[in-house]
Amino acid sequence: MIYLTTPFSEEDIAKLQVGDVVSISGYIYTGRDAVLPKIVRHAEEGTLEEINVNLQGQVIFHTAVSPAGVGPTSSNKLEIESTFEPLSRHGIKMHLGKGAIKPETVDALKDNNAVFAIIPPVTALLGSKTSDIKCVCYPELGMEALHSIKVDGFQAIIAAAHGKSIYE
Fold it and tell me: Which of 8, 14, 133, 147 could disulfide-link to 93, CB 3.0 to 4.6 Å?
């Protein structure tokens, strides 16, 4: 088990290998189809500060936040997978979700020293390891808004790192 606390350093990510099991603690962002393209737009326009978002060394968990808890959504949806490269370029170090991603996405992660980790869909368990939930921006999107959550011991498996993928 590799224990990581956000924000991650370049060195933290450089050491990770496909198949490593990690335990993540600290504040992470959550988002999926509705909000991630908006966050990319802010990053590309240089306006992240206006919405109180700092992507440096951060994790983006592909999930919605609902009364039922948090659980991974499929990261290979077009609206989500297309955000890996720009979000990594702007500071995201770990994308957390589920499902196989394209070889081009694996390459984009490598180019930006970022990784993709998968987490089993265990909403009840994750809910017990989640606290301090805050809507960061786009509250009109409800559970699909960008949230910041504090996690304690989220466990995940590194699925893509340094140009390699468990799905090859």
Answer: 8
